[in-house]
Amino acid sequence: MPLETIPNFQIARVGLRHKLNVMFPRMHTRTSRLMMQTDISLFYEDALRPSFLEVFPERTAEFPVNYRAAVLQARTAGGTLSSHEVEIPQTLVQEFFASLRRHANRSIPEFHDIYFVHTIRGVKNSTIHNPESSDDRIRAMAVLLGDFDFGQLNHDQWWVDVGMELSAPGKSVQWLRHSHRGILEWLFPNITEGQLHNIFEKEERYWCDRVATCDDLAGFRAIPQLSLSAGRAIHYIQAYPTEKSGTYQLHRGVWRKRSPKCIFPRAMVKLVADISEFPSVFIDNNLILVAPSEIMLEILHICAENQPIPESLSQRSNEPSATEEDEDGDDSDGTSDSDRHTDEGDSEENDEVESARYRPGQEGAARIECRTTLDNALSDFMTYIPSWLVKEGLKFLDASTLW
Amino acid sequence: MSSSDNESHTWDFFRSREISLVNFMTILSELHQDGIDSGNYEPFIDAALCSRVTKPTSVEEEDLPFRAKVNVACDRPGPYNPGLARDFDSAIGIVENVDLLTAASLSTTVNFHGTIKSPLHINSRAFNAQVRPLHFQVVSVENSRVDRGER
């Protein structure tokens, strides 16, 4: 069963990037993977609290008497739940979770045979290593799995995302679409034509991610679902350019996807204000804005001529006088964008600005990540890049060209 | 189809021409500058949003208009030797026994933000055993235990 379909919840965390979920495999027939409050309440009182009291009999007061009491304790005045945690010292972690399994197995059948899933998010650049050195690979893995006794881990129980990044100074390195097939053949040395066909033909196993609506430049995601006969155990593959990292957000922020209603008159004020912030990502030497935000601003301006021109447009024009005009209160006189630029390039200073306008704003690498077994990650898997892939599968663009 | 309809669809009959990404960006830059100088941004927007090149530029002065079809293969390849970096991004472990070298923080309430909901692309064991549906009733008396109902 796919892991995410099994009812579960986060039971503990270790630091900020390591979370521990408890899985209930005997509840997987439920329609929702989320646990019902009644289930959680019973698990709390039948397994969680008893195991805590068994291991820490002197800490009874720390653990609320039942789940209702725990929720009441964690609830804020605004109705949300704050995180209420109790510490399990390192020396008793193993004993506590063993006790938890024991108590769960004594409870109702739905709680039998629970197990745990560690999810560890890596810290960017903390595990970069020399691919060709096996010692270096082991050292880097020990950093990622620093919460464990690395020598005692059962390698069959662990999966790791191995990443490889190809970069060139001043370049935005992109995957070419026609390289996808070759990449799969490189990753799976024994893959057959039929298996390749199955991956590319099934929508739920292969997604092509075009860059800037350009057909030729594209990363991809794939779920190979291949047996070991294909050469390697790889569960998930993702190839993408990293040049978007400057605008990537996990939360709903200024780079979020916008809906058509955002260009209604009142909403547009906020949209224009947000877009005027975009250039900060692409500014070079505090002078330069590059194409994407300019295009959007120009279009917005033309769509709504009555909108005041954002200050950033004046900034984009790099006219020293623009600020003075704003200060004089001339900004709202309906002066068009073009009027503001008519004298551009007249001075030496403006000539320099003009030549620098489209200087690089965002470089990027081509990155590929494979979710594979721990043994694979420690092996010589993805430790080199085939020369044909560099010559035929990658595109090295000047960052200024792309943007 | 009326004549006005014909006119509104004129764009769709532009012939295509393959150009390199570098040339396409040069066209955009020049049309953008032209928009700044003249106040007419329509050629720039046509090119930026619809690949319709209607004004002469240093890249293409004749045979206008046309629909630019960007083909990155037209760009000259460079003799690049990219830098290679390998790293481990994240890890997933499925275990029965939890053994750590550090302390753990145990949650006393469930925060559903931490529930595994999105695909991890890893399969794990589950049981097809038919389990009778649960019939729980939470008794709303302070400090009470949950009644297991009919079970």
Protein architecture, described:
Helix content of chain A is 34%, strand content 19%. Chain A is α+β, with helices and mostly antiparallel strands. Chain A has a domain at 3-120. In chain A, the strands form three sheets. A five-stranded antiparallel sheet of chain A has the order 5-10-9-8-7. In chain A, a hairpin with a 3-residue loop joins strand 1 (8-14) and strand 2. The longest helix of chain A is centred in the N-terminal third of the chain and has 19 residues, at 37-55. The two termini of chain A are 43 Å apart. The longest helix of chain B has 18 residues, at 21-38. Chain B has a domain at 12-74. Chain B is α+β, with helices and mostly antiparallel strands. Chain B has helices at 3-8, 21-38, 42-50; strands at residues 16-19, 52-53, 66-70, 83-95, 104-107. A three-stranded mixed sheet of chain B has the order 1-3-2.
What layout of secondary structure does this protein have?
The complex is a heterodimer of chains A (403) and B (151).
Chain A: E1 8-14, E2 18-23, H1 37-55, H2 67-74, E3 85-88, H3 93-106, E4 115-121, H4 134-144, E5 158-167, E6 171-175, H5 180-187, H6 193-201, E7 206-211, E8 214-222, E9 234-241, H7 265-275, H8 279-282, H9 291-303, H10 311-317, H11 320-327, H12 348-356, E10 366-373, H13 374-378, H14 387-393, E11 394-398, H15 399-402
Antiparallel strand pairs in A: 1-2, 2-4, 5-10, 6-11, 7-8, 8-9, 9-10
Helix pairs in contact in A: 1-3
Chain B: H1 3-8, E1 16-19, H2 21-38, H3 42-50, E2 52-53, E3 66-70, E4 83-95, E5 104-107
Parallel strand pairs in B: 1-3
Antiparallel strand pairs in B: 2-3
